[in-house]
Design brief:
Layout (H helix, E strand, L loop, with lengths): L1 E6 L8 E2 L4 E2 L13 E6 L7 E4 L4 E3 L10 H4 L6 H9 L7
Antiparallel strand pairs: 1-4, 2-3, 4-5, 5-6
Amino acid sequence: MKQFLLSPSSLPPPPTQCTYISVPQAGANGGGRTLDCVLSKPAWMWGAEMGVNAAGVAVGNEAVWDRLSDEEFDLTPRLLGMDLLRSVVKPETLWT
């Protein structure tokens, strides 16, 4: 299921629970407010496939396939590309 989410500006709360890991907030160290943004995202994850914010920044996601694989590393919880996309569209949500 696809969701379209209007995310209003806010003061960043302490850590953000992304899709698989929790990340400290920039606001926890005196950062500013987030920006208003509109996101298109799968219902099951925190990240987004595309979005645009009040500053006019628009970002989209594209799948990249490769033949490199490491069974052990592939199971390590980490940020996904769509988590990074959401953090670019709504700054102050991840970067410390």
